Amino acid sequence: MFAAPREHKIQRGQVRLLQRQAMKGILPDVVLARHVKKNLNPVLRRQQHGNFVVEAKKLFSGGSLRCEAYLDRTHLRKCYGEFLANRGGDEAAIPLWYALNLERWLEGRER
């Protein structure tokens, strides 16, 4: 994501464009429109765990991932297992979040 051109990430005062595009249809528009720094705090994690498990399973259900060229597949698989078992905290969830966003963005670039 750091190598992506700035204009793909920030335009006319809007930030996190790649993440917003990747999560469109998954997160409600009200969440996508907010410009507040978010973290995976315990309340948010509990509330979103079920939704994110569904998306993470979709991400890992196929063979190879587009984002493997940029991220460590072995580490992602480890994080995925820990996340499914509801262990690992941010150390498991955040790499999966990055992978999901990057994968969605790469999918969009192929279209």
Nutshell version of this structure?
This protein is mainly alpha-helical and 111 residues long. The protein has helices at 6-9, 17-23, 29-33, 42-61, 73-84, 89-110. Helix 2 (17-23) crosses helix 6 and helix 5 (73-84) packs across helix 6 (89-110).
Rg is 14 Å
User: Number of helical segments?
Assistant: 6
Counting DSSP E segments of at least 2 residues, the number of strands comes to 0
Low-confidence sequence ranges = none
In sequence order, what are the helices and strands, one letter per element? HHHHHH
Query: Which bin fits the share of residues in helices?
Result: 55-70%
Mean pLDDT: 79
Strand composition percent: under 5%
Largest sheet: none
Ends: how far apart? 18 Å
Shape: globular
> How many domain regions?
1
Question: Care to describe what's here?
Answer:
- This protein is an all-alpha fold and 111 residues long.
- The protein has one domain.
- The protein contains six helices and no strands.
- Helix 2 crosses helix 6 and helix 5 crosses helix 6.
- It is globular, with a radius of gyration of 14 Å.
- It starts with 5 loop residues before the first helix and ends with a helix.
- The model has no long low-confidence stretch (mean pLDDT 79).
